[in-house]
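Repro:
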Amino acid sequence: MTAFDNLNSSEWVEPAAETISLPLAHGADFSELFFEDKRETRISSNGRHIVASSTTHMTGAGLYLMSGTVTRYGYTNRLDAAGLEALASRLGGLAPWRAGAKVATALPTEERVFAPHNTVLRDPADVPSCEKALLLNRVCDEARGFSPKIVEVHADYQDRIQNVAVINSEGLLARERRVITTLRLFVTASDGGQMNAAWNNFSSGHGFEYLEDDAERSKMIVSTCKSAINGLMARPVSPEVMPVVVDSGTFIHEDCGHPLESTHLVGGTSVFYGKIGQQVASPLVTIGDSSAWPELCGSFAMSDEGVEAMDNVLIKDGILRGYMVDRLGSRQLGMPQTSAGRRQDYRFAPVARMSNTYLRKGTTPTADIIPSVSHGLYVREVGGGNVNPTTGNFNFLAVSGNIIENGELTYPISNINLSGQSIDALKRIVAVGDTYFPDSGSLCGADSGLIYVTAFMPRILIDGMMVG
């Protein structure tokens, strides 16, 4: 069999169906093959010259076996019948399986076709590398021309074209073609005495046409340059608990996203375990994770377990309603499977992960929130963070924003640490704005590797958080 090519070939279906049947005779009660053919192009500029360019091509398949809640996973680059059979024989013969497990039978496959959620007008595969390089040059020129204080510029272009297919012993056969286009910008500002750096990520589930949008691209360039320059004037903040206004969806990602993944719920290892139906947030708060939200880089037609994309409401009006659940989590928790099973590529078993995590907009006019704060912190951008799913303790870095005094933004801040506890912080949300602040997406790392996600929300006001 040749490489799985662009979702058009069907010659892999028959040997794949035979392969997933083999482990069922060894005690497995579920068998799944995940095929992938992925091409990535990367180009880097130092602001004046193209300094690196590469294209990589990865093809393979991963076999996922279950018997109850016992799992095995393996992968191969050999996609012919003999290679797949060798993988199934090796993996299916591994102990321990459940004692006395019945011999299962694979159901006949029936292909499901899922409607794509992202539109691609200019396929990156059809765009010459020289055109991609010219785009980087324009970005760097615009960033350098923003201000004499911008002294260094670096930009990266990346596109990923991923063709995937899932076939399992429950009769599912589904395929999808996914495109991610990314522009990253790094700038350094100097006032002649000190220097400050800032960066931004611009990822989209569209094709190359998204980066050709001058207005959208300019927003990212201006925002990144302003962040670097404002950081030159930033002042330190004395540690204290104060009201915090946040525009960045990364807050939701770190505060409750990871603890609501079923991976962290098994054995009661999440702060949200056992709290379905209980109040875990302010009544103003509704939080969900939607792989079906159109035109975002965390969107897809089907999960990496072949589950159709869905809008999964996790917290509604402050009440915990559900979790993000992969197939294994469904068995472990006795809960319905959602479209959360995701992986970096065929070398990873699927794990419950976020896609597009959001806090639903409210009714408070966005412009009224900052004036309502007499003394506090405004967080415009979050640079990342981490959370302990068991305790819910989290921290994240506010990379840009301002101190609020008497309802007005005053001197800028940069790289200020904020910390809190998941449920406590959610219950302290006292205002939710009426306008979403968009998120251009980024990479999130966990047990199944690096995946693209977004996190977005309206402006919110938390009435007390530890700052500094």
